Amino acid sequence: MRSTAGVTPAEAVLEALDPEQQAVATTLTGPVCVIAGAGTGKTRAITHRIAYGVLSGRYDPHRVLAVTFTTRAAGEMRGRLRVLGIGGVQARTFHSAALRQARYFWPQVTGRELPAVTDSKLPLVGAAANRCRLRTDRTLLRDLASEIEWAKVTNVGADAYVPAAAAAGRVVAGVDADTVARVYAAYDESKTERGLLDFEDILLAAVGLLATEPGVAEAVRAQYHQFVVDEYQDVSPVQQKLLELWLGDRDDVCVVGDPAQTIYSFAGASAEFLGGFPKRFPAAQIVRLVRDYRSTPQVVATANAIVARGDDAATRTGVRLQAQRPSGPEVTFAEHPDEVAEAGWLAGEVARLMEKGTPAREIAVLYRVNAQSEAYEDALAATGVPYVVRGAERFFERAEVRQAAMLLRAAVRSGDPATRDAPDAAAATSAVLTAAGWSTSPPAGAGAARERWESLAALVALAAEVAASNPDAGLADVLAELDRRAAAQHAPVADGVTLASLHAAKGLEWDAVFVVGCHDGTLPISYADTPAQLAEERRLLYVGVTRARQWLRISWSLARTPGARPNRGPSRFLAGVRPAGTARGTPGVEPGSTRRAMSRSVTRCRVCGAPLSSAAERKLRRCAGCPSSVDKALFDRLRTWRLVRAQEQKVPAYVVFTDATLTAIAEARPADENALAALPGVGRTKLERYGADVLELCRAAEQ
Question: What is the CATH number of the domain that holds 656?
């Protein structure tokens, strides 16, 4: 059938595609491998391929199975097919497809229903650990559960775990490999005794049915004739085995992936299947999607420069993106003296973007580990910017943070001598948190134990800030600061700036992206020491950069806390990526002048001239111990006004102005907008929102 314009529906489907996407859509038989760079329209290409096959009469939609890795991606695929007028295609995750098949065939083979799938491994892992007389806490249980998941998706049984873990460099903090293997075996026994399956067993059950029951394999192969696999760089060995069993001796499969976005090898994913596809299928047609429709040329150039310096096979075999969008703003690289300054800078940049019309939902802050979120949550809350934390619990809602706060409160109530006699609040906090697992050295390897340590380390750093701003502070002051920050982070967050780890950002995109904390030790992470691990860290930065459509900011800090020794530098992955003529990436600073630039950025006390180390001191522009010229009556009126405004806006008072900012206002008593805007903590947004009220209060104080 032809339209009035003489174009068939099948031909019309191709009109919206570029030449490379058309090549994908029109190659309907045999093995096809699509190497698709970030932002190149891979989902468009594969959904149009299915639509073209159906509309041209080559495909029966009920005989097509498209698999991907997330329910969101599968739903997007189904939605696009509906828009193209195609129904009946099965678009599912690997697990969903496997579960559907296992539930259908298991009763036919065994005479009983498929066992129930457990909601959580942790109770079973706990029971297994008890059998092995291993003392555990929730963190260790999570790490053991993750290790069992890795072993199962890589087809490693308990009896083969020890050599496999050694070969893969797997480490579970505090537990040797032999003990992990014993817990793994006991876990399988406990699961069998209770008649349960876990998430990975779904895949294994489908594989077992297809591999051992010829009738099952024949039925599945009769049902599905064409297969499409999205995000093929992320398949695990057991998923690859399932795909091979679906195919049998056929080769009508189209795989799509980007080796430069392989970032889940820690969970068992292997890009070797994507890289080795031409060897398994010598007749495979290879199509490379290189036209980037997502990002500006400036962002694309940065992404290309990052992967061009990688020396691993997965990175080298990726594509060199070609930007299709008009030119945009330059990518900026910013260096900061400490993480507090970096977070404050970010909050200001975000506020400026929003003032110029960028919606909060189109801005993202991406970091390497979830524990980094606390500084940025605090800075955004202080600026009155709404935010949401994606892919992780908000910092103050994490179990280890809640437990730490409980221990600190108990120590304050009991007057524990160990903390009462500590030299300062930081030392007292460290003493209390040892009971929650804190130590000066991080645990080996990654996983929940490392994440827990990083959260506790962030609390110790916070206590150090409190002690630096007030040498007489105690645990009660640390708790007060924790409560103040936690309360501020409960502000309404609808339509907020996204805070996410680089892993959680995969598959998403925003107009403006800030990749923060890009210093060695964090990106790459300190425990990445093998060439393969370092290569994956580089790809993680590439994924973060390619999330940006228009604005991209990359930043790092020289020290963790204000006043600490600046002992770290920008990520090694930025070497050759940052523009020549910048010192460590700071715009406008000539090479070799980093020390002079840093000295100029030091804020000094307006009373004694000493350098100021804490954020509170920098807001006041004086040392905590120097005489204050604060107008107490004005300060009290400002606090009363702030409370009223906070209640009107239904936000914590801290979001309007912090106490430190109110103190600075009451000391400076600004007479006009310029003087008010010059005070730290008063940005353009707050000046427009509150400036008239504040200046009126200051003028009234002068009368």
Answer: 1.10.150.80
Q: DSSP secondary structure string, 402-423?
A: HHHHHHHHHHHHHT-HHHHTSS
Amino acid (1-letter code) at residue 362: E
Indicate whether 384 and 514 sit together in one domain: yes
In 3D space, the residue among 96, 99, 66 whose CA is nearest the CA of residue 256 turns out to be 66
- The Cα–Cα gap between 135 and 132 comes to 9
**Is residue 581 scored above 70 in pLDDT?**
no
Residue 505 above 80 pLDDT?
A: yes
Q: Are residues 659 and 516 in the same domain?
A: no
Range of the domain at 415: 399-484
**383 and 478 part of one domain:** no
Q: Is residue 298 part of a domain?
A: no
Question: Given a cut of 50, is residue 591 above it in pLDDT?
Answer: no
pTM comes to 0.68
- Distance (Å, rounded) from C-alpha 114 to C-alpha 208? 13
476 plus 506 within the same structural domain: no
582 with 502, same domain: the answer is yes
DSSP string computed for 37-52 = -TTS-HHHHHHHHHHH
Question: How many alpha carbons fall within 13 Å on the CB side of residue 435?
Answer: 14
DSSP class of 328: -
* Angle 218-221-226 from CA coordinates, rounded to 5°: 170
588 in the same domain as 502: yes
Residue among 667, 432, 463, 443 at smallest CA distance from 560:
463
Q: Is residue 157 part of a domain?
A: yes
CATH number reported for the structural domain that contains residue 533 in this entry: 3.40.50.300
Q: What is the tens place of the pLDDT at every residue in 178-209? A: 999 999 999 999 888 888 998 889 999 999 99
pLDDT band at 72 (very low <50, low <70, confident <90, very high): confident
Omega before 524 within 30 of 0, i.e. cis = yes
3-state secondary structure of 206: helix
Give the lowest-confidence range in 43-57, 241-255, 282-296, 653-667: 653-667
Say how many residues make up the chain.
703
CA 106, CA 149: separation in Å to the nearest integer? 23
